[in-house]
Design brief:
heterodimer; A: mainly alpha; 14 helices; B: mainly alpha; MetI-like fold; two-stranded antiparallel sheet
Amino acid sequence: MMSPRVNSVVFHTVLTVASLFFVLPLVWMVVSSFKTKREIFDSPFSLPTTLDFSVWTSAWERGDLGVYVVNSLITTTASVAGILVFGLLAAYAFSRFRFRFSKWLLLPFALGLLLPVQSYLTAQSRLFDAFYILDTRWALILPYVGLGLSLAVFLLKGYLDSLPHELFEAARIDGAGDFRMLVQIVFPLMRPGLATVATFSILSCWNEFLLAMLYIQDDGLRTIPIGLLAFTGKYSTDYPTLFAALSIITIPMIGIYVIFHRQVINGITEGSVH
Amino acid sequence: MKPDRSWTPYLFVAPAFLAFAFVVLIPALLNTGLSFMDWSGTNDMIFVGFDNFTRAFRDDIYLTAYRNTFGYIAWTLVLEVFVGLVLAGLVTVKGRKTGFYRIAFFVPIMLPMVVVAVLWSFVYSDDIGLINTALRGIGLGDLALVWLGNPATALIAVSVVSGWIYAGFYMAIFYAALQRIPANLIEAATLDGASQWRIFFFIKVPMIRPIIEIAVLLCVTGAFQSFDLFYVMTNGGPDHATEIVTTYLVEVVFRFQNLGYGAALATIMTIVVVALGLVFTRIRSRSGGIDIEY
């Protein structure tokens, strides 16, 4: 039986090596963006000779990264807002009211959780085409909201189900109407649930790739995932610039994650286990 | 609770349901109908009955896609779920501070797939990639394969990337579940002299079995929904070695403009996924599912 001291060293070494596996590729990418293409080829594992941020600024400008970021911001914000508002309204009704057809109206949302989007992608694209939505922001916002609602409704309903009856009965006796109850009682209590759904939805929308690629051709409307793909196509061999662009996009995301890691991890794991 | 006015629940559900119907339900129904047609999107729709379906079952690429998908599922069950479980076990060892490691393991999940795909394509690159450069550097140049270009290694290579991304996710799920095991149970076992190893294997793991089952379901359904990584890293190549059902579907519809056939492929895939889901729920309820209340 090893001494506790040695045990500890071994333990932390193993975990450190494991952590490095997950983190090193990213670190390498950022570090490499400061090297010249020659340096990346010749000595990929060395440190850069200079910290030249001009590659980063040039990547930002040449790649029009600002446009992509703005588009992602608009699309994600609108979608998440829709998911939260519609989701809460629906979850509230499903959870607290007994009404005819409630089971039938809830069932489709369960299907939405199970089905890959490719199950109905073809028809969806034709439908959007018929309504002239393609190549507009709505082509993304509508599906993001629709798809995000599946999880949102179930998650929020779960939270709502756990609220005590007495709370609502007391409010009823006080003369509160349905809508007032929602705003004054339910909403304040649902903040953690809404935060969970928001975290999950923000991450899904921000990184969504397939629909963004298929439905948006206008370069001015591209979101980050597709913008980066286009950038990759244009600068496929200019590794420093490529890595710089990827780093610019990735570092803020990781920064936000590290700061809010508790909420993020809770949001995502809760969103998936339910 | 009875609503104020009988129509308020419907009003509240309406926006969500309408959005969902427009985006998922109606397309799903339309897609089923479309499976029986031949259509290129521009010419006339012709009703072809079950032709698309019979063609699907003779379509080698489609069948290969299923083989690859199931292969991918097998790999990711190990690389994502099992590795995640091991990591969760490591970070819940009694008395150790492991917050930092947990944060590190979870980082890759934040990343857009494009970043991951480009980064790892570079790592796997056969002439200038990190892996091969390192191998040559330590004299194991013979092992420097064309990871993504070799049909024998391509699927595994992509699966490893998938594991890199998601192992942390499963670790987080299992970690949350492990945290909810009553401390006194663990205490009792420790006092009885059991090693951390035995505690993990024989007590902790069985107690989080429901979560493990959910994780398996997530992994399987997730594998069917996988697209981004495969599309950007290999786009189904080399030679369809990494062609999965979703990539082939997208190719049939958006490259070959064969909407009816693509819809049929999608319908078959939906049936498979739903069947898997049902089988899974049946197995779960059959095995008793002892729910330990804590």
